[in-house]
Write a structure and sequence with these properties.
The complex is a heterodimer of chains A (223) and B (251). Chain A has eight helices and no strands. Chain A is mainly alpha-helical and 223 residues long.
Chain lengths: 223, 251
């Protein structure tokens, strides 16, 4: 039997995928909010004058960057509860995994951006009597943050796509829902295509939003 | 009454193996303008940076207005408000307007209200001839204008002394004059200043005292008139001779 592209299946499937897409967005947004805070803290630890803070941050980044996300997810959902004697929901595990994973990459983005600001800026800040903390808040961070936006956008998009790996612990996000619909309709081509287009819609929108933020923050002549 | 503003006692400083300041002692009195000259690598910029602890020192002592700068319990943030710094590369804050560059210190360090700080900011910008540039950003200014803003920023905390680290070295030649003019006016108003510069005209006309550093030691110092009319040390004669050949004295 020749393959026939059933265009209407795509339209019919979209509403059925909305719950999954909503869950994907929910996990992405909460996970990235937490991941961003974690990443900023760890990134600033890396440029701290205290060596133990730098060490904490380095160990965290190396462990997370050096292991696959899928292993982290499995460990968090199946491994940790076994050791602790409690269970966590797949969604909670998913959010924690996205947060902890993106946090490591965001830490590196933050560290790189902060270190890219000329040391003369710190010297000028300290020379008008600002403390280290004030110099970071009022002088370094605003400049560094602008430089972070493009790589952060990259990371946000990666993390959004990474939520599809949560199928392995049964989170009913977009990919999982697509799989389930295929198991009853057998229209793999149309439905995977629809799922792909929905991911594309989300990542494209995210990229546009970040681009707008970048433009808004760009003041006259400032790079 | 002569009051010492900066007292440097037997200062030594090294970067790793390299000793760049080898026992310098120097007193700068209130209201005095002292110019430091010397070849690159002579330690003059490093000496200046040690005064506000932008560099650590190896041994010796630096006292700024009675505060021991390098003692562990020194309130360095306070000392830095007493000793302002003007950098070769301006180091203006590019994300802040000219006015915000000048008011950041008063608002955050002195905790004075924004409206009052802006009033002060405008007054300082007028003083350096940039009252009409308050809402510009540093990237929109020429080098000479940037350096004048950075002088206004240093003045914003009403320091007792201002340290200038080669303030005109990064400027196009035609922009040097406007910055030196501002510095002259400050000197006339009685500001205590320590200036690292290659502008010999400025040193001759404005400085009370000129100090020639060579390989980390004070090689010669004197009142500016005699200093240039009668350089004694052969190294100084050689240094001045080289500068004369390069630029000729200009005011």
């Amino acid at each position: 039997m020749a393959f026939e592209f059933e265009y209407h299946v795509m339209w019919e499937t979209v509403p059925l995928l909305m719950n999954g897409m909503g869950l994907t967005l929910y996990i992405t947004i909460i996970g990235l909010l937490a991941g961003f805070m974690l990443g900023v803290a760890m990134g600033l630890f890396k440029v701290s004058k205290y060596s133990w803070l730098r060490a904490v941050s380095s160990v965290y980044v190396e462990i997370i960057r050096g292991t696959p996300l899928i292993v982290q997810v499995m460990f968090l959902y199946f491994g940790v509860p076994m050791a602790m004697g409690t269970r966590i929901s797949p969604i909670t595990a998913g959010i924690i995994a996205i947060a902890v994973n993106s946090g490591a990459y965001i830490a590196e983005i933050v560290r790189g951006a902060v270190q890219s600001i000329d040391v003369g800026q710190t010297e000028a800040g300290r020379s008008i009597g600002l403390t280290r903390m004030q110099t970071m808040i009022y002088v370094i961070w605003p400049q560094a943050f602008r430089r972070m936006i493009p790589p952060l956008g990259n990371q946000f998009i990666i993390s959004l796509k990474d939520t599809s790996l949560l199928v392995v612990i049964g989170v009913g996000e977009l990919t999982r829902q697509g799989q389930e619909i295929i198991s009853t309709t057998f229209r793999a081509f149309e439905i995977w295509l629809t799922v792909a287009l929905l991911y594309l819609l989300m990542t494209f929108t995210l990229a546009r939003l970040l681009r707008m933020l970048e433009k808004k923050l760009m003041k006259k002549g400032v790079v | 009454m002569v009051r010492p503003m900066i007292e440097i006692k037997n200062l030594r400083k090294n970067f790793g193996e390299l000793e760049v300041i080898k026992g310098v002692s120097l007193t700068v009195n209130q209201g005095e303008v002292v110019v430091l000259i010397g070849a690159s690598g002579s330690g003059k910029s490093t000496l200046l940076r040690c005064i506000t602890r932008l560099e650590d020192i190896h041994s010796g002592e630096i006292i700024v207005d009675g505060h021991n700068v390098h003692s562990p319990d020194a309130d360095i943030n306070y000392i830095r408000t007493e000793a302002g710094m003007v950098f070769q590369n301006f180091n203006l804050f590019p994300h802040l307007s000219v006015l915000e560059n000048v008011t950041l210190g008063p608002i955050k360090v002195r905790n004075i209200p924004r409206s009052e700080a802006e009033h002060l900011g405008f007054r300082l910008l007028e003083k350096v001839g940039l009252g009409d540039r308050a809402y510009h950003y540093p990237a929109q200014l020429s080098g000479g204008q940037k350096q004048r803003v950075s002088i206004a920023r240093a003045l914003s905390l009403s320091p007792k002394v201002i340290l200038f680290d080669e303030p005109t070295s990064a400027l196009d030649p035609e922009l040097v004059g406007e910055v030196l003019a501002v510095m002259r006016r400050l000197a006339e108003e009685g500001m205590t200043m320590v200036v690292v510069t290659h502008e010999m005209g400025f040193a001759r006309d404005v400085a009370d005292r000129v100090i020639f550093l060579e390989k980390g030691v004070i090689c010669e110092e004197g009142a500016s008139k005699e200093f240039f009319q009668n350089p004694r040390h052969p190294r100084l004669r050689e240094f001045l001779g080289r500068l004369l050949n390069d630029h000729a004295f200009s005011a």
